[in-house]
Structures are given as C-alpha cells and as structure tokens.
Design a protein that fits this description.
Number of strands: 54
CATH architecture of one domain: Sandwich
Oligomer: single chain
Keywords: Membrane, Signal, Transmembrane, Transmembrane helix
InterPro entries: CDCP1, CDCP1_CUB_3rd_6th, CUB_CDCP1_1st, CUB_CDCP1_2nd_5th
Protein name: CUB domain-containing protein 1
Strand content: 35-45%
Helix content: under 10%
Largest sheet: 9 strands, mixed
CATH superfamily of one domain: Spermadhesin, CUB domain
C-alpha cells in the first residue's frame, strides 16, 4: 500500500520540477555604455523567485542583479511573471566638470522591459557652487503633490543632494508651465513608468547653469487668459529646515494681471532669522513681505518671488517650512458685452473665433472663457470680448434648411430665396461667411437658379466681378465650384442630387450682413441619375466655359455631370476641349458623350484611352454633354471645355436669295424698258421729210432751227405730206408757196417749207471734207455741233445720215425721198446719170441693209 502511494508523489514532484523549469522567463540584455541596469525584487514579493545571470556552470542567481558591462547578457527569471515581482532601474551618470559642458539631450529607450515597472535615473553633477540646468520642451512641466498622480502615468522627480542629506525638489508631470529648473551642484532626475505602459518621455536637456545663491530656481511661463497654478517648496509633505532660498521667476503675458496667494503655509520653528518673501516687479520695484501678510494682487508684468527660510529647529515632530504658492492670472481691461439671440431664426447658429493667435483677445460665452465661441441654433447667449480687435475676429453663420419633399410639394410652390437674415445689432463683429445647409428629406434633387439673370462659374479664364462669391458643394463636402449671379451669365439652372451646402463669402466688402438681397432660389425636383446637371444657354456674342465639378482638382470617383446646351435658332455651337487631365483607371472608364436632345442625331463619345484634346465638335441643334469618371488608380479626371456660337448659313437661304436677285434684276429691266418706251413717245422724232435746197453753195444747217420750239409742241412731226403744199411753188411758179396756217393734217399740225431768206454771208460754205464736218458731230472745235438729221436716242438702230455732197449738183439725190415721184430736181433735158462717190456708196449699202427691215411708218405715211 505504501509503495503504491509513494510512486504518485514522486511523479508529482518530477512534474512540478518540470513545470517550474518550463515557467522560467529568459531575456537578453545589453546595457548602453555608461548605463547601469539593476533588477531588484519588491519587498515581500516572490520569495521563491530569483534572477540569474548567464547560463550553464557560470550561472549565478540572486534576488537582485546589476549589469554594468556593455555586452549581451542572458538574464533568466525562474518564475513565469517576473514583472510582478521585480522592478528595473536604468541609471545613467551625467557629469559636467568644466564650464564648457555641452548640452545633453536625454532620450531613454522606449521599448525595453515593458513587462516591468521601470525607473529611469539620471545622476547629474556640475562644478562646485554651480547649478545644473534642466530645460523641458513645451508645454513644460507641472508640479504636483506627492499624493497626486500624472494622467499619462509618467512621473518625474527631482532630488538634490546636500550636506544635510537628499532633498526632494518636487514631483512633476508633463503639460505644465515650468520651462526650466536649476538645482545646486548635484542631483538626480527620475522618471517612473508603471508596467505595461508605453514610454513617451520628455526629451529634456541638461546643461550647467549660472552662479546663484539659491538652492532651487524655477522658471515659469504663465499662459494667456484666466488661469491658476500651484507651486510647492521642497519636501512639501515634511518641510525643509535648511536656511536656503527657493526662487520662482514668472513670465506674465501683456495685458494680464497676476495675484499671489499662499493657500497653505506651515511655518518652521525658527532659531535664527525669519521666513521672508522678496518680490521683484520687472527690473525696478522690489519689496519684502512676510508669508502671513497679504501678497501682491492685480499686478501686471513679469515678477520674481524668492522665499528665504530661517534657521529652523530640527527635531522629531517639529515640522519644517512648507509653502504652497498659488498664482492666478486674469485679464485686465473692460470687456465688450453683447447678446446673440437665435430663438426667432430657425436653424441658425453662430461661430466666432480669433484669427490672430498672437493677439491678447479673450472671448467668453456666458462668462466662460472660450477659445472658440459656438452659439447653437434656437438659443440665447451672452458674449464678452476683452481686448479683441474687430479685424482679428471672424464671425461665421450656418443655417440649416429642410427642403420640402418632392412627393408633398405643391405644383405652384414658390421657390425658396436664400438671403442672409438680420443678426442682433449689438453683435458688432463683421459677418465673414454664411452657409446654407440644404437637406432633402427624401431621394430628391436640389434645383438652384439665379433670382436675376443667369449664374456664372468663376474660373481662371473668366472670374466673377461681383461683391460676393458663392461656393456650392455636394453632401460629402467636395466642391462643385464657385459661382456668381450676373446678367451675362450662361447657367440657367444647376441640379444637384442629394444634400447641398452653399457658402457665400465677401470679395470686395467687409461685412456680409450688408447684403440683403437674395443670392439664389431653391426648389426641389425628382432624383436625377447624374450627380450634377447644368442647363446652359450660350452667349450670342462671346464664349462660354464649362468646367467639371471641383475644377481643377478633379471629379469624385464614379461620379457624373451633364450639361444641357440650348442652341438658338439659326446658330450652330462649336465645342472645344481646351484642357483635359490624363488619368489611369482602376476600374471602369471615364467617358465623354455628346448627343442631340431629340435623340434623332448621332452621338459621339471618347474614353480616357482615346485622344480628344482640342477636338472641335459642331452642333447645329440643342445637345447634351455628359462626362463620367471611373475609379482612378492615379491622377484625376478634370475637363475644361469651351462653347462658341456662330451664325448658321443654310443652303436653301442662298437659293432663295439668288431667285430674289434674279426677279429683282428682271423687274429693273422691265422698268427700264417701260421708261424708255414712255420717253420715246414723249420725245419728238427727227423730221425725215426732204427739204428743198436752192441752187448755190450748199451749207450745213448748223444750229438753225424752226421758229417754233420743238420742246413745246409736236409741230415738227409729219403725219402726212401734202405734195401741193410742199411743192406747189415748183408746179406753179406764179403761185407763191403758202402755208395753210391753222390747217391740220391727220389731226396734227404740220410744218411747211419756206425758202431761206436770211443773210447768206454768215453761212459757212459747205465742203466735201469729212474731217471738217464729221458724221458723228464731234470733230475739232465743233463738239457742240449735231447733225440736223440725227435720229432720237432710242433702242432702235440709228438711221444712216445723208452724205454731205453738193446739193446744187444735178447728181444730188436725197435717199429719203427715193420712193417719191418728185425725188429728183432736174432741168429740162436728158436724164443725167447719178454718180455716187465712195462715201455715198457706203451709205447706200447701209441704207439697203437698213431697208431690209421694211419702211418705217413715218415714211410710209409720207409716201
């Protein structure tokens, strides 16, 4: 029985030993040069757990382990969780033995021994009578009581070593007002971090400070605004007894007041001298007070406070000197008060912030100092501004509007006008920005139009010249573009799917509250498939630019935009792509499509892998331009295009104009013919009857005319020829030729022949020289001479003129009387043959050719 019981016990002991061996924790440690790593066991913890150095026969184990050599060392713990039993100290010595000691930046390792509680110690030493100086990075350190803890679990402790023993200067946390601490001669800086906490140290700098008679010098930089900070003397919990000085230097911001208070003061039992507090205000004023007196209050400027201890009694249960110094900082001056009442303006909220961080502006909301004031919608707030220049403040307002749903919207609903509401007149801060948040309750579309004229998109090629600018953005915050309302704008409507934000900012004015008129009109419509749709009408004169949303940064992935372009009648539109960005698509394609609105014409399209830069597309009717983006892999998709209108010249218009021209030409010709005919009827015709010339020297009539004016009557027109009247004096010599004055022939008055009775000397002799009397009457000096027998100017071809031959010759023949029986005048005797000269032969041929067309009516009547 006993043998059977011993066997399980032995097996259990063996398994326990194996388990203990398996629970050993092994790490490799390499100390830095000049660094000592010390593993120490916590009191009353893990009595059976030890730390071992190295392995094999040379292994040594103990409750503590110190590593000083800068070589890899195997450290083994014979327990599973050594972090609960051991702590780690990493010690480093820094000594400045000369005045030229350089500044050393302290950077503790951040990844070692995470499972242990760690304490980093820096032992500092400088020349005797000198101070070592610790400079902390911004925002500095904050002193706390020993009973307090730091929020980030990084606790700093500074100790000074004096002849009487070590003295704790204080315990500190990060994010405070202490920028520098100087300690006399020797000391230690410790950083304590608990286990399982990532190390995030402040990389303070160490250097040798100046000569001083104080034990500790603390430099403090007080922040702006209302604040309060506490500082404590060394060994605050137990007090210190040495007759030393503790000095604080305070830097106070301008236009701030400080007040010093001693909330907690424990006086020592002085054996010699007294405890005094010395103040120095700036560089001039100095005074001394006892700790029990009223300390300076509502003072301005930098100051220093020096606490001097007496020679205190050292004994058990006798406290030393302990003093809690509290410094309060307030703003000086008189604040400006105003009210913001937003209870009567639905959805309106205000935000006020200081744009100049270097100013001393102090803003308060309901008596609470704020870095940024936010007045929620539907509330009333009391605002205070102290030393806040108006030009440093920025007031922005936001108004949320719930657009009516498309299903419940009435057909005759008037579009909503976006105008800036009137703010409280006591709020003297200029309005720098106003934003409308338009929320669509259902899946709808926001329609934006201009209250006057059309909208114009502000682009580098054509910027807005108005006093304000409108930034329109989509729901996700991506910008569509900047717009303004101008009479020469081309955008009639912008349709955006989903919620929209519209922000108006000033361009040439300082306060938006001065603009009272509406900026946009808002309506809702059913949901569209594209993200944005523009309805545009190009200018008759000039060009129109089309830019994709968020130009030039590029459209959102997988988004689309459409322009509906209305082309006026008798015009055609030229579309040109002037700037197209190149991109690579991860999925899908970017596509540009152009097509007519009536869906009857041919569409054109391009993708990102096709070239369409500087392509000019002509459209003779209204059309749409659609652009869709892909999921980009690199770069972005952005297009800038241009539309120009041109007057269209149609083919049938040219035909109509040609026909009209021909008709006009025919009409002009007809009018000319009618006018000529009427003129011919009214113009007197030339007398074509033969006139008897007496024998003698022939002469040309020259300018001889009938006594009567032919312009006044038609007496020169011969309707018929009366032979007895014309030649009666030849038939009967005793009977004189008379003219039947007042007689009419065929209803027309006719002229009768009368022999020439004028002086013969003034008549020039007739010659056969054709040069002296040219047939056309334009020779020599006689340009005014016209032939007596010239025919009137009509469309009829002119009659041949009678040859200028001697009329006294028996061979003279008047061809115009060739068919008359009395056409020759001869003396009694044989018939003489008629000889024709060369000129007369030519004239005869002309007359024969002329006679082929038949005798003229006037001659027929004469015969």
């Amino acid at each position: 029985m006993m043998g059977s019981c011993v066997a399980p016990v032995l097996i259990g002991l063996i398994l326990l030993q194996i388990h203990e061996i398996s629970e050993c924790h092994k790490i490799e440690v390499t100390p830095d040069s000049g660094t000592v790593i010390f593993f120490s066991k916590k009191p009353a913890e893990g009595l059976d757990c030890s730390v071992c150095k190295d392995e094999g026969p040379s292994q040594t184990c103990n409750s503590n382990l110190e590593l000083t050599e800068a070589r890899p060392t195997i450290v083994t713990f014979n327990c599973s969780q050594p972090g609960n039993i051991f702590t780690v100290q990493i010690n480093q010595k820094i000594e400045c033995s000369t005045s030229g000691c350089s500044i050393i930046a302290v950077h503790p390792h951040s990844t070692r021994f995470l499972e242990f509680k760690r304490t980093f110690n820096w032992d500092l030493k400088v020349q005797s009578g000198k101070m070592f100086q610790l400079d902390f990075p911004a925002p500095g350190m904050r002193q706390i009581k020993l009973s307090e803890s730091c929020p980030d679990k990084h606790t700093y402790t500074i100790i000074t070593y004096q002849r009487a023993g070590p003295l704790s200067v204080g315990t500190f946390c990060r994010n405070g007002t202490i920028s520098r601490i100087q300690v006399l001669y020797r000391g230690r800086v410790s950083l304590e971090v608990p286990k399982d906490t990532e190390l995030n140290p402040s990389d303070f700098k160490v250097s040798q400070g100046s000569d001083t008679t104080a034990l500790v010098v603390v430099d403090v930089k007080l922040p702006r605004g209302l604040s309060s900070f506490d500082f404590f003397t060394p060994n605050y919990d137990t007090g210190f007894y040495s007759e030393d000085k503790i000095k604080w230097n305070f830097a106070v911001e301008p236009m701030h007041n400080f007040t010093v208070l001693f909330p907690q003061y424990t006086p020592p039992e002085c054996q010699k001298n007294k405890v005094l507090v010395d103040y120095t205000l700036g560089d001039k004023t100095s005074f001394t007070k006892a700790p029990t007196e009223i300390q300076p209050a509502n003072k301005q400027g930098d100051f220093s406070l020096t606490l001097t201890n007496c020679e205190a009694k050292r004994a058990a249960n006798v406290p030393g000197l302990s003093l809690n110094v509290n410094v309060e900082v307030t703003r000086g001056g008189t604040p400006v008060l105003c009210t913001a009442d937003l209870r009567n303006e639905e959805g309106l909220s205000l935000q006020i912030e200081n744009k100049n961080p270097e100013s001393f502006c102090e803003m308060s909301l309901n008596s609470v100092v704020q870095e940024k004031i936010v007045v929620p919608a539907g509330t009333k707030a009391d605002l205070s501004f102290l030393d806040c220049p108006v030009q440093d403040l920025q007031l922005t307002a936001t108004k949320t509007i719930d657009c009516p749903s498309v299903s419940s919207r009435d057909v005759g609903t008037i579009p909503l006008s976006l105008a800036i509401p009137t703010l409280d007149p006591s709020l003297h801060v200029p309005l720098q920005q106003f934003t409308w948040l338009l929320r669509v309750l259902d899946q709808g579309t926001v329609d934006l139009t201009s209250p006057a004229g059309n909208l114009l998109q502000s682009l580098p090629v054509k910027d807005c010249n108005e006093k304000v600018s409108l930034l329109i953005s989509e729901t996700d915050g991506s910008n569509i573009g900047y717009f303004c309302s101008l009479a020469e704008g081309t955008i009639q409507k912008i349709q955006i799917k989903g919620n929209v934000s519209i922000t108006v900012t000033p361009k040439t004015i300082k306060d938006l509250s001065q603009e009272k008129g509406p900026f946009l009109k808002v309506a809702t419509s059913p949901e569209i498939t594209e993200n944005v749709i523009y309805t545009v009408s190009p200018l008759i004169l000039g060009t129109m630019n089309l830019a994709t949303p968020n130009w030039p940064k590029g459209m959102n992935p997988s988004s689309s935009v459409t322009w509906i372009v209305n082309v006026p009648q008798e015009h055609k539109a030229e579309l040109q792509f002037i700037d197209v960005s190149k991109l690579t698509c991860e999925s899908g394609h970017t596509e540009v499509t152009i097509g007519p609105l009536d869906s009857q014409g041919q569409t054109q399209s391009w993708r990102e892998d096709q070239s369409f830069i500087n392509t000019v597309v002509q459209q003779q009717q209204s059309f749409y331009l659609n652009m869709s983006n892909c999921e980009p892999k690199s770069d972005h998709f952005a297009v800038l295009s241009k539309i120009t209108l041109q007057k269209e010249t149609k083919k049938f218009l040219g035909i109509i104009l040609a026909v009209v021209g021909v008709l006009l030409l025919l009409l002009i010709i007809a009018l000319i013919v009618v006018c000529v005919i009427r003129k011919r009827k009214n113009k007197p015709t030339a007398n074509r009857s033969s006139i008897y010339m007496p024998r003698g020297k022939p002469f040309l009539p020259g300018n001889a005319t009938f006594p009567k004016s032919r312009a006044d009557n038609e007496s020169h027109v011969y309707a018929s020829i009366d032979d007895p009247t014309m030649y009666g004096h030849l038939l009967d010599k005793n009977q004189p030729a008379e003219v039947d004055n007042g007689s009419w022939s065929n209803g027309h008055q006719v002229d009768a022949y009368r022999p020439f009775t004028g002086p013969a000397d003034s008549i020039p002799p007739a010659t056969d020289s054709s040069a002296e009397y040219p047939l056309d009457g334009r020779g020599g000096d006689r340009e005014a001479f016209q032939s007596f027998l010239n025919p009137p100017n009509t469309f009829n071809l002119p009659r041949p003129r009678s040859p200028l031959v001697s009329q006294g010759s028996i061979g003279f023949e008047d061809r115009r009387m060739v068919h008359n029986e009395l056409h020759t005048f001869k003396s009694v005797g044989d018939i003489n043959p008629i000889r024709l000269s060369t000129d007369e032969s030519k004239l005869k041929l002309e007359m024969e050719s002329d006679s082929d067309s038949g005798p003229e009516p006037e001659y027929e009547e004469a015969m």
